[in-house]
Structure formats: C-alpha cells, structure tokens
Amino acid sequence: MSLAQGAPLLSRLVSSSVAIASQAGHVIRDVMKKGDLGIVEKESVRDLQTEADRAAQRCIISSLNKCFPKITIIGEEGEDETKVASGSIFDPSTGLLVEVACPPQLSSIAEEEVVVWVDPLDGTAEYTQGLLDHVTVLIGIASGGKAIGGVIHQPYYNYQNPGSELGRTIWGIVGGEVGGMNILPPPEGKLIVTTTRSHSSSTVNDAISAVSPDEVLRVGGAGHKVMLLLEGKAHLYVFASPGCKKWDTCAPQAILEAAGGILTDIKGSAIPYHASAPHRNSTGVLASAAGQNHEVYVEKIPQHVKDNLKA
Ligand code: AMP
Ligand code: MG
Ligand code: MG
Predict the structure, then answer these.
(1) Does ligand 1 have an atom closer than 6 angstroms to the CB of 198?
(2) pLDDT band for position 1 (50/70/90)?
(3) Is 203 an active-site residue?
(4) Is the pTM higher than 0.90?
C-alpha cells in the first residue's frame, strides 16, 4: 500500500513513523542478540545509554530527516546520534505503509510547524536487566506546543509467546483514531496505579498513597505505563518526580488522548511541546485512562508534593 503524496502531512508523518519505529525495533533486537550493549552512564547511574539507544536514534532521525527535511526533530540521545545511519534508513517508497486518517482541523499543518520528540528506546534500565516487554520506541509529533500524534512500538511484544508475531506498533492522532491495538477499559470497582520501578522517591510514593490504590504496578518506561492504561490493565499513571522528559510523554500523550484519556503534569496543567520547551517534565506526570475523572485525582495529590515540583 502506498500513501499518496497528496495525503495530509500528519497522515504521512504518522504512517512513516509506524514503519520507522518498527525498523528501530529491529535495530534494538539486533544489539541485544549480538550481546554487547555498550552501556554508558549519562547524568547518573540511574540514567543509562546503550548501543541500542544510539543506533535506534540514528535510524529514526536519519529516516525522518530524509522523508520530512523541514521538521524539527529532538532526540533523547542528542546531536551526536543524528548522523546518517548505515544500512537502516527507511525509504517510504519501498515500505508498506498503514493508512492513517487525519481529522480536518489538523489536515493543513506544514513541516515547518512540526516538532518531533524521539525516545529511541524508552525503558533502558529494564532493557539492560532483561525486562524486555517494558521497552518501547516513542515518536511523538507536536504542533503549536501540543502533542497531536504519536507512535509507540513494542519491539518485544509477544517475545514470551513463541510462534506469535514478535513486536507491534500502536499509533494515534488526537481527535482521530488509534490503530494497532484494541483499547480496553480498566476493571470497575478498584483502582490500579502504575508508576516507576527504577526512579522512585518519597514524593512519588506520597502521591501514590494519596490516591489510595488497590494495586500498584511498578514497571519501566513511560511508553509501557501508558500502554497499560490503553490495555485496561491500570487506571492511573502517577510520577511525582522531575526525571521524565518530553520525548517520554509526547507520543504516549497523543495516543492516550486519541483514546479518550488524559496526560498532564502532576498539578493537572498541560505539558508544553514547543521546540524551545525545557526537555525535562519538571512538574511530574499524571495520566488517566479513558473514563476516569482526571481532575479528582489531581485534587488528591498532596499540596507538599505539588509544591516540591517546581517548573
Ligand atoms: P520510569 O518510569 O522510571 O521507567 O521512567 C520513565 C522515563 O523517564 C524513562 O525514560 C526514564 O529514563 C526517565 N526518568 C525518570 N526518572 C528519571 C531520573 N531520575 N533520571 C533519569 N531519567 C529518568
Ligand atoms: Mg524514556
Ligand atoms: Mg530512552
């Protein structure tokens, strides 16, 4: 299937990003198969980078640049990892592209107005520890400071089910459709909260206690946690800490909102995605599945937790 050049930019961008994220998933699995992860510490021992993060970013940025030369791309692994990737650039004329419908209000956006936030491998700590189903590739599309479209690729989806197809890709456009999965509601009559497993703190735990959950799922990756909200496995994602970045939340937020959910900072304010926005989500993350009353949870977060997280 080829996507006509006449299709809206956002349709072509999401569709190409589906193929590019899947290609990055191959890169991530290849590095793990070869066994030499090339781990380096970035800002701290809790902030790692592997050869898979670097190679997947080169693949994604080279491919997006080739297809959409005028968009602004911000990748987690920085400028060094934007150079041309050898052998893994996606060519949209040779790939199979999904058809993505664009809602009319987003159909005339130009390349110059688009900022793409790329997390080539979300859940690096878990990747190095063999918790492979926590890993995602995130390509988030923003315009006018808002998350408007996104792709989440799970390179290890089904890896514990031999015989089933390995990996899957989910996409969404705000005000449009979600593709690649069935959205399910979380169970009624209980509250399941998902949060970090490797970046916990006292404010993270105070915020969780304040919403009185029946169950807490401590898992890796912002992408993986939002997937739990989309799959009906959790009601709420609580992260009252400054460590999460724009490339962690842009794609998950767009897909969650396309599915009827909400993602804000811990105070209930919108997260800005302009190219000049600070990379860090310094006021935390709060996300709720479709059908949840987001405002009620914002109210329950203790004031001292909110005061502790400054913009
Ligand atoms: P987590 O929920 O801990 O898996 O974190 C979600 C995303 O935010 C991942 O990309 C983490 O690398 C990032 N993150 C969260 N907290 C920190 C931190 N303290 N230092 C560095 N990265 C962090
Ligand atoms: Mg990340
Ligand atoms: Mg990452």
Answers:
(1) yes
(2) very low
(3) no
(4) yes
